[in-house]
Design goal:
The complex is a heterodimer of chains A (326) and B (454). Chain A has 326 residues and is mainly alpha-helical. Chain A has 14 helices and no strands. Chain B has helices at residues 10-17, 25-28, 30-39, 78-87, 100-113, 125-132, 155-160, 185-190, 197-203, 207-219, 230-239, 259-273, 285-293, 303-312, 346-357, 359-369, 376-379, 382-385, 397-407, 417-432, 438-452, and strands spanning 65-72, 91-98, 120-124, 171-173, 179-184, 225-227, 296-302, 320-323, 335-338. In chain B, α1 (10-17) runs parallel beside α5, α11 (230-239) packs antiparallel against α20 (417-432) and α20 runs antiparallel to α21 (438-452). Chain B starts with 9 loop residues before the first helix and ends with a helix. The chains are: A mainly alpha (326), B alpha/beta (454).
Chain lengths: 326, 454
């Protein structure tokens, strides 16, 4: 039975003899109220989600300059055509997807391991749960500044440790892979705990009997992880993977602040870690090409949408595989 | 104000906060706003004619005016506001201080969206070229009589904030970053180079000589490099060119046909080849530590850099001295106060700006917080001109920085000056990082310049 209040009323038509004011009240209560209840979300969404999205779409079809609003002319798809032939745009797309993989995969694997360990902890469990979330609530700016120190060339701890093994000092910002590795490490550090908590929550929904039975049969803790926890968590893993991938599409702050020269939005001297968001920011706000930047933003929206759709389809499939029926 | 506030962080904060906390208060007393111009004729003449405010039973609330001012870093204006209110009891001043990058990105967002800017906005040299290319976004201060102040400023300072056609002045200068060369006397002594400032200045009348000195320094094997970063050497030269990235007065980019730029690039490459650079990047942790450890022997020093060194490497007191910058003169950083055109109290804002930037006030600010004055009378004030910096072996910094600012030839900077400079700097960094050879880096930088200017 999923009848709402309104639907139920339809079954019992309002008696004719009721006072008009009462009828109005009935109507408000029965028909309008449900819409009012959900209205706040939609009003906010239209104001702060849909309108900016559509307006950006319009701007992307013009040659709008940042500081001369109103002086733009309609240029059709010119921005998008230029985008297709823009090497720096494709470089940013490539970096975004590379970083997406470098951030998401280690992050989810580590989160799973972490969750499994915490699930086995008996004492101080709440403390551990809170502790893993700590990186996530730390200011992202602070995180990046600290990592900047950790990865600094002459006096950074990473180079110091590598130096113990005879490795020469690395200028982390300079290289293609070294810089991406450093950026990815910040993201992984920040989001692993968050995902671990989600896994932990899902793990607790797994019936204890399964583990007991497995233990009885002599399965060790890692075997339990592999054969019981993992299959049961499949929908959760798909969900976190999707959220993490979409999150990485918007990677911005870490590469921005990791760049050696302050305020630089090119992601390194050769754009080795410039993401799509950084590229959009550079075009819109540094170079003032707001129209072009808006086109980048829309391509980003479309790519995210595509990714979400693929993710959704996979999630549904894996949910079916896991036999989850909710 | 001080370019070292050019900190990493808050560019982002500003971006994420988006429109941020708008100065919506402007419109609060909107009823009064409209009349401001109309009032001019009636009781409100500019000066100090507010002698009898208490008497006239109801000086209508319309007369109470709230001016907002946004700046960054340390402008040191707090005591000046109090002083101003003494003579202008109807003015209320609300100051909001942010960090270098967020100040400018907020301002640009507010200009782009047509609302939210303060009545008075501070703008640093790093963003001035971009903003003055859209002079219609700002009040033309010449309309308020700013022309008579031109004689107060070194030509480069006055022209840096004037529109390309010379008809609109959008800002009045606050401070400058006159250039000098800071050097470590202990390292120079170790390398058997002179340590007396006059003799050191004589070592490098030109940038070529500066690099030659560097080669000698390097040969002495002190364990330190000659300078911190190759981009500083490059920029120091480019600052002094009369023509840099733009054909003066036009929107035409001339980087690829300007021999001055190529010469600056080539000399920079020579210095990199000779291993004179510590390959550091300003404001990175390694760079800051480099001061303490004496990792480099010289650094291009704008006035505000002296404060930065003192703050970050207090243990090096007495090991530094300051010589003249190679070439003629230079400037790095320094700010203006501007009045966005969207403001509703432009006339009152102008009066406050004129007060805050007047030579007398610049001297007060210099004494209080050390920002180097941009007005010539202030530069010649005995307390400025005679200032000696104890941290730097009593170097006569007042005179050095003052001369550098006054002698600097004005350079026309077009709209994309900032991004173009960044494209060139990135090329130098690519060579320093070993990613590219000089020729390839130069070619790519030229491509990036063309792209930035498109």
């Amino acid at each position: 039975m999923v009848e709402t209040h309104g639907v139920a009323l339809q079954g019992h038509p309002v008696p004719e003899h009721l006072h008009p004011a009462k009828r109005l009240l009935q109507w408000v209560d029965g028909k309008l109220a449900p819409y009012l209840y959900i209205a706040p979300f939609f009003v906010l969404f239209v104001g702060f989600g849909l309108f900016p999205l559509l307006y950006t779409g319009y701007v992307s079809l013009t040659d709008r300059d940042l500081l001369s609003p109103g002086a733009e002319t309609y240029t059709g798809l010119a921005n998008y055509r230029e985008l297709v032939g823009d090497d720096y745009f494709w470089n940013a797309v490539k970096n975004t997807f590379l970083l997406m993989m470098m951030c998401s995969i280690p992050q989810l694997v580590l989160a799973l391991v972490l969750a499994h360990i915490i699930a086995g902890v008996v004492r101080l469990r709440t403390l551990f749960r809170m502790a893993v979330l700590l990186p996530n609530v730390t200011s992202i700016v602070a995180v990046t500044l600290i990592f900047g120190q950790i990865f600094s060339r002459d006096f950074g701890i990473v180079n110091w440790v590598l130096g113990l093994f005879g490795v020469d000092h690395i200028t982390w910002q300079a290289g293609d892979w070294s810089s991406r590795l450093a950026v990815a490490s910040m993201v992984v550090w920040r989001w692993t705990g968050y995902n671990a908590l989600i896994y932990l929550g899902a793990m607790q929904a797994i019936p204890k009997e399964h583990f007991e039975a497995a233990a009885m049969d002599g399965a060790g803790t890692w075997r339990q992880l592999w054969h019981i926890t993992l299959p049961a968590l499949r929908p959760t893993i798909a969900f976190t993977a999707l959220v993490s991938l979409i999150g990485q599409m918007q990677l911005f702050t870490e590469p921005l602040l990791f760049d050696a020269s302050p305020g630089s939005v090119t992601g390194g001297s050769a754009r080795q870690f410039q993401t799509m968001m950084l590229f959009m920011y550079e075009e819109s706000f540094r170079l003032g090409h707001l129209g072009y930047g808006a086109a980048v933003a829309w391509v980003l929206v479309l790519m995210t949408f595509l990714l979400a759709t693929i993710g959704f389809l996979l999630t549904r499939r894996s949910a079916k595989l896991a036999g989850a029926t909710t | 104000m001080r370019a070292h506030r050019r900190h990493f962080a808050v560019a982002t904060a500003a971006v994420l906060a988006g429109i941020g906390c708008g100065k919506a208060s402007n419109s609060a007393d909107n009823a009064a706003d409209k009349q401001v111009t109309a009032q001019k004729t009636a009781p409100e003449k500019p000066g100090a004619d507010k002698m009898e405010p208490a008497k006239a039973a109801a000086p209508p609330p319309a007369e109470k005016i709230k001016l907002t001012i946004n700046n960054f870093g340390v402008f040191g204006y707090k005591p000046l506001y109090e002083e101003y209110k003494q003579s202008h009891p109807n003015i209320e001043i609300l100051e909001s201080v942010s960090e270098y990058n967020s100040q400018h990105s907020n301002l640009i967002n507010h200009l782009a969206s047509g609302g939210g800017a303060a009545d008075i906005e501070a703008v640093d040299e790093g963003f001035m070229a971009q903003l003055k290319a859209r002079p219609e976004q700002f009040a033309n201060l010449l309309d308020f009589g700013a022309a008579e102040l031109e004689k107060n400023y070194p030509p480069f300072k006055w022209q840096a904030s004037i529109s390309a056609d010379g008809k609109r002045q959008i800002g009045l200068g606050t401070d400058v970053g006159g250039l000098a060369m800071c050097y470590r006397t202990d390292l120079f002594a170790k390398a058997k180079l002179p340590t007396d400032p006059a003799e050191v200045s004589a070592l490098w009348p030109t940038w070529q000589k500066y690099v030659e000195t560097g080669i000698k320094f390097k040969a002495a094997k002190t364990g330190a490099t000659f300078f911190d970063a190759a981009t500083n050497l490059y920029n120091g030269q480019v600052f002094q060119l009369e023509k840099a990235y733009y054909e003066p007065g036009t929107n035409q980019v001339i980087v690829d046909k300007n021999p001055g730029i190529k010469a600056a690039w080539d000399l920079t490459m020579k210095a990199i080849d000779q291993g004179l650079s510590a390959k550091l990047v300003a404001w990175q942790p390694d760079w800051v530590t480099g001061f303490t450890k004496g990792a480099f022997a010289t650094i291009t020093c704008p006035a505000w850099m002296t404060g930065y060194i003192k703050e970050n490497a207090p243990g090096t007191a007495g090991k530094w001295n300051i010589a003249a910058v190679p070439g003629a003169a230079g400037n790095w950083g320094g700010s203006w106060l501007t009045i966005p055109a969207q403001g509703k109290h432009q006339k009152e804002a102008y009066e406050l700006v004129a007060f805050l930037t007047a030579p007398a006030q610049q001297v007060k600010v210099f004494k209080a917080v050390g920002n180097f004055p941009s007005a010539i009378p202030a530069i010649h004030d005995p307390s400025v001109e005679g200032f000696k910096n104890p941290f730097f072996n009593d170097a006569p910094t007042g005179k050095l920085f003052g001369e550098s600012a006054i002698n600097l030839k004005p350079q026309f900077q077009g709209e994309k000056h900032g991004p173009i400079r960044k494209a060139m700097e990135d090329g130098i960094t690519r060579v320093e990082q070993g990613r590219q050879k000089s020729d390839a880096a130069y070619a790519q930088s030229l491509k990036d310049v063309a792209r930035a200017a498109r």
